Amino acid sequence: MNFSKTLINWYLKTKRELPWRETTNPYNIWLSEIMLQQTRIEQGLPYYNKFITAFPSVFDLADASQDKVMKLWQGLGYYSRARNLHATAQHVAYELDGEFPKDYKGLLKLKGVGDYTASAIASISYNEPVAVVDGNVYRVLSRYFNIDTPINSTNGVKEFKALAMELLDKKEPSNFNQALMEFGALQCKPKNPLCDSCPFNGSCLALKEGKIGELPVKIKKGKIKNRYFNYLVFSSEENKTLLQQRQGKGIWHGLYEFPLIETKADIQKARIIEENNEFRQLMEAKNVSVRLYNDQAIVHKLSHQHIYARFWLVASQTLPKEGISAEKVKEYPVPVLIQNFLNEIDIENL
């Protein structure tokens, strides 16, 4: 059996109709690939459509404010991708005259573009014979060839890239790469793969050995970190509130949130007043009332940490610093945790 020919034939008959498959424009391919990293197509497609509508060209994206880019990205997660997307758009627009590099090595120099994205753009836009390896590809190859090398190990990355390059159809690298990724998404799925109708079920080694459910192998991540956030949701008589932009290299960098007090544990009102000077001063201030919005902490799970969040509603005649109109709050890019809270509460009428 010719692996690549069988795979491409399957793809041409089965592939989903997607907007970025209607073009070889590197801007569209780059945008879709950045968005779909660690994101299902069903989730990423509406975001892609929003971005293409708002920013039809790399120049439009480059000219936008970072806040606008982050607001449109809101809810897609992994926000460093959005910041890198904006920075790369500015580099391509202002320093490369709107022209993306035309080969794998040049693409790899762009901010936020690694082996996977550079390979995808190079093969799809320029038909360069370089193999793409993503989660779907790891799964298909590890099962078909019964490979138990951990896919997130240094050896695994090298082994699977070399294997993908060996299998790559040099005459049709674009179709081959897209076919292999699509096959993993639709046929060789993580759970309940469609082995009965698989065109490779007669030659798949993992199926023969009964190891489909064991592959691919992945080294377990480190321990999940728990963090405890207490958000102060201010409201003044002038119907203003406070937002602050997250700084540093931690989660949600560049997004906005309510003033935050982070504690070492999920503590109740009496203890947070006792242990935190800022909170105690609020409670003791004249013409200020503080009440807890949610008795049970809201658990927001990220890949490497779990956030336990409580929202404290702080009504005050005046704010401790200059605020913003409550009606403007929903215009700011915020983490999903904050957006869900805003969807529940009428921030304009606290």
UniProtKB/TrEMBL annotation:
The keyword Metal-binding applies. It comes from the Bacteria. Pfam families: HHH, HhH-GPD, NUDIX_4. One of its GO terms (molecular function) is 4 iron, 4 sulfur cluster binding. Keywords: 4Fe-4S, DNA damage, DNA repair, Glycosidase, Hydrolase, Iron, Iron-sulfur, Metal-binding. The keyword Kinase does not apply. InterPro entries: A/G_AdeGlyc_MutY (IPR005760), DNA_glycosylase (IPR011257), Endouclease-III_FeS-bd_BS (IPR004035), HhH-GPD_domain (IPR003265), HhH_base_excis_C (IPR023170), HhH_motif (IPR000445), MIG/MutY (IPR044298), MutY_C (IPR029119). Binds 1 [4Fe-4S] cluster. It catalyses: Hydrolyzes free adenine bases from 7,8-dihydro-8-oxoguanine:adenine mismatched double-stranded DNA, leaving an apurinic site. Gene3D superfamilies: Helix-hairpin-Helix base-excision DNA repair enzymes (C-terminal), Hypothetical protein, domain 2, Nucleoside Triphosphate Pyrophosphohydrolase. Its EC number is 3.2.2.31. GO terms for biological process: base-excision repair; mismatch repair. SUPFAM superfamilies: DNA-glycosylase (SSF48150), Nudix (SSF55811). Its cofactor is [4Fe-4S] cluster. Residues 35-186 form the HhH-GPD domain. NCBIfam families: mutY. Belongs to the Nth/MutY family. Adenine glycosylase active on G-A mispairs. MutY also corrects error-prone DNA synthesis past GO lesions which are due to the oxidatively damaged form of guanine: 7,8-dihydro-8-oxoguanine (8-oxo-dGTP). This is Adenine DNA glycosylase. The gene is mutY.
